[in-house]
Amino acid sequence: MAAVRTFALPDLGEGLTSAEVVRWFVDVGDVITVDQPVAEVETAKAVVEVPCPYAGVVTSLAGPAGTGVPVGAALITVAVGEPAPAPSAPGAGSPTASGSTSTSGSGSGNILVGYGVSTEPARPRRRRVNATIPTPRPAMPSGPSGPSGAAGPSGPPAWSGPVGSSAPRTAVAVVSPLVRRLARDNGVDLQALSGTGPGGLIMRRDVEAAVGGTQAPAPHPAESDSTVVALDAIGRRAAETFTRSRREVPDATCWVDADATGLLAARDALNAGGAEPRIGLLAILARVCVAALLRSPELNSSVVTDTDGRATGVRRHGGVHLGFAAQTPRGLAVPVVHHAEDMTTARLSAELTRLTAAARAGRLTPAELTGGTFTLNNYGVFGVDGSTPIIHHPQAAMLGVGRIVARPWAVDGALAVRSVVQLSFTFDHRVCDGATAGAFLRFVADAVEDPTMLLRHL
Prior knowledge:
Dihydrolipoamide Transferase; elongated; alpha+beta; 3 domains; Chloramphenicol Acetyltransferase
């Protein structure tokens, strides 16, 4: 008799309470091995693969792609142990519960469920089990007997149905995972609804009408040709952070234009002769930020608040954990270089390159996305000159760097064409006054104009 084990969504990182299924690597009926990845889930921090600690046959999944799963809730269930006796119908090739055929004796159909052991050679493709393994069924009506008068079995229903189900579910026209979640939370069968959206698409109003037992109102003319794109977990997290920052932080911004001709010359000198790894402008700017923060520790801090949100103190961080904005196909990410103050410029450059590649591939770990104490934002890569950055809560400041462009500039009393950049600095006015912020920005601007001055502070 096979035992059904439930694998719950594990804790995926600091402060994360749920994840959304991006895609499944397995289906109901697949044979899996210990620590085999079964799903790719998206948290507020990153996209990660989740391995299952059980070997056996998948009997149910938490839901389709787009389903939200709280930490500690069932992600999948797995039947482990020995398979049930084969059907008594004589002869090989008789139909099984799954609608396929099985073979007797040794051969490719003789799968031992338990710890992924099989008498057949290992194959790279997923295997569909043919043994009739007891699986959970939907609960029968309460009472001493079922419809036929015999005692009825009970158990939790599986989303995809039990192994061997002959009534597969059909697809429904729903785009938004939020609509699916709303229907699931309120016990609404999406297959029973008629969508009022374009092409019969089931909208949120359709589910809400079903919950209230009313007919869904006709769509507003402006809605009939519009599309709502749901925010993914990363987008929702970013929106919450930006909103909280704007709501809680009394921020102020100052800016200055700087002659970056010396910065470009320093980059070229560091990379002369094909030196590896190559050092980019972002790495040099990161080095400038670290030096400036060591001179102005008030800005490498965060405000401490009480339960009512009132500021009660300022926590000054012992290390410089430098976050930097990275644009990815999934949206904006802010990876963190931990203890940047201990790194050389070459090591800083290598770490920035590694984290940028991981961000674009969606493979940043929660640790690489948390714990930042200051953020550097190079929005010049988008071709803009200046901006007023939103502080990445709960940090206290952010430096923004615009594009470097050729402009007329006064040099030793004469007009010349120089490479000029605008630096924007936004800070939390609760941690310092304008004098401290101005001194920080002036130090950064001076280092951009003459990077050799950093030698005095390294």
